[in-house]
Amino acid sequence: MTSIIGHSKQRRELSELVRSDRLPSALVFSGLHGIGKNLVAREIARQLLCEQREAAPQGGCGTCRTCTLFESSTHPDLLTLTFSGEHGASVDDIRAALEKMSLKPFMGGKKVAILNDADEISIVGANIILKSLEEPRPDTYFILVLSNPSRLPATILSRCQRFFFDRLSTEEIREIINLRGIQEISEALLLLADGSAASLDSLQARSEMWEDVRAVVERAWLGDQAIVARAAQEWGADKNQIKERLTFLRTTIRQQLLATSTDSNATAVWATALQNALDAEYLILDRHVNPTLTIFKTLQSCHRALSITYQLTPRQHPTVGELLMDGR
């Protein structure tokens, strides 16, 4: 059984719902990518399928026949679909999975479906799943694991009990690093994790990009428009790595906001810049707005000289999202 770091409150609550047979048939696990939501979903699924679930410890006993089948990924009453990536589950995959879920449990207990990256489900796929959520079979459970619940139709969300999983603490990230046997992670790269354990093994390989983003943000703070313009042009043109750079940009700005929490002038700038970084990710990745212009506007909002404007009119200056979506 895989060790799970963090989320002890959610795990205890879910485990108790399983033991008392009060677990809702449809659940949404939301939170930052790479913080262990899928591991918690598997822990709950293992306990649901465990032959000793009422008396078993959190996550199942680990020794019964069903737990053994679970660990070997051969349990007939567990279905897992992943919707992200080039080979993400198709509409036909969804139909096939739901057909299996409509059958009685093979081992006489319960059936569980884990839907990973459920916020990537197509509208057609979501509508197909909705029918199963509206009329669930007894002892059948759906766990939707995702990062952005706003991408799911409201009709699906309304039929699920939602559990939010917060980002991991620095101490929890360190514990995961130790468990994985990673020898050296600098403090800067530890900040880069930003509460997520995803891709910890590759952090060292991306350190150059991380340092580049941090350096550009520092120059933006000083008002170096030439550096800002050049970075926006280069980052916007690099389609293969734009998602990573946007993540690094958001993380850098967030860390600056936390580091300057006692300086009201700096806080005014970084708080606005963080909202702009979040807007930039949505506009570029979801709405396909011009990446160079969006990044340029976001970096411009990191300029320390803007603090007076932000403090004088804290609710009147538009965000990057408002500027670009309004065509200004």
Tell me the series of helices and strands, N- to C-terminal: HEHHEHEHEHEHHHHHHHHH
User: Which strand order do you get reading across the main beta sheet?
Assistant: 2-3-4-1-5
Please summarize the sheet with the most strands. Answer: 5 strands, parallel
Give unreliable regions as ranges.
none
Structural class: alpha/beta
Question: Can you give the helix content as a percent range?
Answer: 40-55%
Please state the second-level CATH architecture of the largest domain. Answer: 3-Layer(aba) Sandwich
Number of strands: 5
* CATH topology annotation of the largest domain: Rossmann fold
Shape designation? elongated
- Residue fraction in strands: 5-15%
Radius of gyration: 23 Å
Number of helices: 15
Mean pLDDT value: 88
Question: Alpha-carbon distance between the termini?
Answer: 54 Å
Number of domains: 2
CATH class of the largest domain: Alpha Beta
Compact description:
This protein is an alpha/beta fold and 328 residues long. The chain has 15 helices and five strands. Helix content is 51%, strand content 9%.
